[in-house]
Write the structure tokens for this entry.
Amino acid sequence: MSKVTPKILTGFMELTPNEQLVFDKIKSIIASTYESFGFVKLDTPVLELSQVLLAKAGGETEKQIYRFNKGDTDLCMRFDLTVPLARYVAQRQNDITFPFRRYQIAKVYRGERPQKGRFREFYQADIDIIGSEKLSVLYDAEVPAIMYNVLRKLGLNRFHIYMNNRKVLKGFYKYLGLEEQSADILRIIDKADKIGMDNVKLCLEEMTLPADKIEKILSFSAIEGDKASVLEKLNALNIAEPDFQEGLTELQTVATAMEKAGIQETHYKIDLKITRGLDYYTGTVYETFLDDYRSWGSICSGGRYDNLAEFYTDRKLPGIGMSIGLTRFFDLLRDAGMLNFDAQTPAQVLVIPMDTDTTGYALEIAETLRKADLKVMTYLNDAKFKNKMVYANKINVPYVLILGTDEMQNQVVTVKDMLSGTQESISADAIAEHLKEAFAKQAEQAQFVIKQ
Amino acid sequence: MSKVTPKILTGFMELTPNEQLVFDKIKSIIASTYESFGFVKLDTPVLELSQVLLAKAGGETEKQIYRFNKGDTDLCMRFDLTVPLARYVAQRQNDITFPFRRYQIAKVYRGERPQKGRFREFYQADIDIIGSEKLSVLYDAEVPAIMYNVLRKLGLNRFHIYMNNRKVLKGFYKYLGLEEQSADILRIIDKADKIGMDNVKLCLEEMTLPADKIEKILSFSAIEGDKASVLEKLNALNIAEPDFQEGLTELQTVATAMEKAGIQETHYKIDLKITRGLDYYTGTVYETFLDDYRSWGSICSGGRYDNLAEFYTDRKLPGIGMSIGLTRFFDLLRDAGMLNFDAQTPAQVLVIPMDTDTTGYALEIAETLRKADLKVMTYLNDAKFKNKMVYANKINVPYVLILGTDEMQNQVVTVKDMLSGTQESISADAIAEHLKEAFAKQAEQAQFVIKQ
């Protein structure tokens, strides 16, 4: 029979079993942290009606969408998790208790030209808090605190969450009389990290803005320092524009509450160059960079929006959300050698019967250990002992139990510690407790998933 | 602005937050049980190349597939998890350690005509053990033991795993000289549960089989009793056909090992009417029925196959697998009133600051409790106290912490037990320990997810 070559599409990430174990640990830390803040998971369909999912989309996004017909129905695969959230909340607004906290860690689809770091199928890990009519700005402090917790629990320490407020920007450009040009100006400043401030200046000059205003823009964008000094410098500008003042108050409230919410001041900064796209966000915005990998861009971003679902409902649904681009983040960590795949194993214990006479005993012992919450694999193939141990080595299991006729008759097991190479005989009654103690010790020394 | 009606496609299941919490508990029990047997998760792409995914498919399945072009590429959405597994194992056969144990709990897609109990997007929860060249028949006992554990952990007790062996059937029909007709005969017997044995007889008569052979088929299919007596009756048939004898030996080995693997004999039966489709399975086959809901059909099925990936590789890859149709199972349990959605809550504790002065204190207390592994939500909106308590009631949270200026000044919290309605004042230092003890007590009385 002629064979079909087994392969997957380019731009799709598929992992080895060991990589998958690490990926899942990261995903599970993100999910359990989100849950610890009272977020409930949503699981929306991958396929939706195009008329619903594309109510807002347009331009670049729409071109990338996997869209097709099945029968008479015009379908597309979700390209983000925000539009499905908007649809969900609008659809079920009468059954939902607001503020509504949801998380969703799921794959989204974009038929982009594949290139390094761009995937056509990728996980996003989103949290959003949605209010009905109003939502306290204090939530703008809690949401980055959640992301701070996620990153710390993954083992990262050298990172900063940068925040800004779109109202401050809006007020500043109104004050300069550049409200109409502000979208173009912000798009240039958004690139400051990549192109440098000198090139930002050149770009602004190309826009034929007056030199004094360019200077003001550049010195405004360059304001930096710790939280208190940035706020002080912004106050000192004496800009009376209501948007500016409102944004400044919010910035102050949020920055103060962030500390209360547990983010060390060493880990966040106000940065007036953070703009986060153009039309969706209306207040606080965030980006997060690893200090040693600025070139990765933001690994976790988000912000405040006034109206989640205006395409579906008249009800005003303000919200605040952040998102981790998990697939891309994992890919970058892997390439940077920050993940340890070799230490992975699918089981804590491998139970090996010496021959067919002891397979029943092996199955019984394995079941006893599982009742004590251990992860236990059996090796039931008829093979030479040496090959069984080769298997144990390949799957990197820390303990092997060897069960021969002698062991069965005496109701003991031979335990081999694969790291030290030592082995000892333990009574069948005591083996679960023995192994649990060994693993409890190891758990105390447990290492973070990511090595920084 | 004119609004788009927010809705999803028919045939797609989307849950309320409370339903989602229950669904996830079930999914998580399945996953952790699979993992306790040393299975590693795979996460294959939802989209694959049609030429790869459809190497084998045809007929009914192919008509249901979501297939489309993007650019020059002919794509389809996966319609099961077995074909992607075959592709994965064939593609990575040199990097995989055999026997390879993988699980995958993921959505698959079939554009079927939507009807009650049929979904177009649904979760399957699959386990498979794949050998290279050979795989001991003892694994055929371990795999149903895993499913037995899953069902027991979900809270089910009134169910049976029914098993059979395709070699026994093949040998029996060879012995009757009906090998050619056996596929048609088995298709009729497969329906015995729905149409009854009298109708099976009528169908066999319509095939114009000789009356004496029909009698033999019916009395063979009707063999029942406990494991020992069924095996004895099969032995007593004295059928020398090698397939029959080989199958009978396997049936004996597997049935004996199933008990060792921890399945109570009250929970499995040999049933010669179980056939499991026609061409894929080659040895042991299983179906699982809830005793009180036979009409649901099998909730968990599978079996042994000789060759997982023959469309992709010459290497012989025998395997054994079972699968739970999770979405359909959940839907049936929900309709039968066996799931309790009312008791769900997104958090264990809701922290309510009385006014803006105490929001900082609330954020700090919440963070302290999370460090003690509690799930803690804050309520930060400016609202009347009554409305805050309405929120607490709606989300069904068991404990509310009320933090006013007095509490902050004295570094205490007022804890309200929402079930009993009592409240007490506890020192901020002691509150984490106090709540952990309360939840530890509740955990001892924890109930199963499914009420039978």
Notes: The mean pLDDT of chain A is 94.
